[in-house]
Amino acid sequence: MNDKQVLVVVEIRSVHDAEALKAYQAGARQQIVEYGASVIARGGATLEGTPAFGPLMVQHWPSEDAFRTWQGSESYRPLRAIREACADLRIAVIPLV
Fold first, then answer.
1. What is the CA 93 to chain-centroid distance, rounded?
2. Cα torsion at 82, 52, 64, 33 (round to 10°)?
3. What separation in angstroms does the CA of 12 have from each of 1, 65, 96?
4. Which partner for 17 in 30, 68, 72, 86 could form a disulfide, CB atoms 3.0-4.6 Å apart?
5. Phi, psi angles (nearest 5°) of residue 42
6. Mean pLDDT across the stretch 65-72?
7. What is the largest CA-CA distance in the chain?
8. What 3 state SS string does the chain have?
9. At 3, is the pLDDT very low, low, confident or very high (cuts 50, 70, 90)?
């Protein structure tokens, strides 16, 4: 069991359907609160390196297990299908020190 608090960083690499992505984001924001997480930052600008980062969002989760529970939940399943159809994302889980 991993009960250490984590940050989850989401990078939007490409968008295939902007309207569907907006619907996904609204649903996901509501659900992450229900699972005990919060969005603590969004946006960002690349200062060094190429290629540039896509839009970023940083979430604070009580644990990696909580994040993975949400990702595997029945309530998230329809949102995951929307996400996978409308955008390509990269997601990183970073333990807090």
1. 10
2. -50
3. 29, 23, 22
4. 86
5. -155, 150
6. 97
7. 39
8. CCCCCEEEEEEEEEECCHHHHHHHHHHHHHHHHHCCCEEEEEECCCCCCCCCCCCEEEEEECCHHHHHHHHCCCCCHHHHHHHHHHEEEEEEEEECC
9. confident
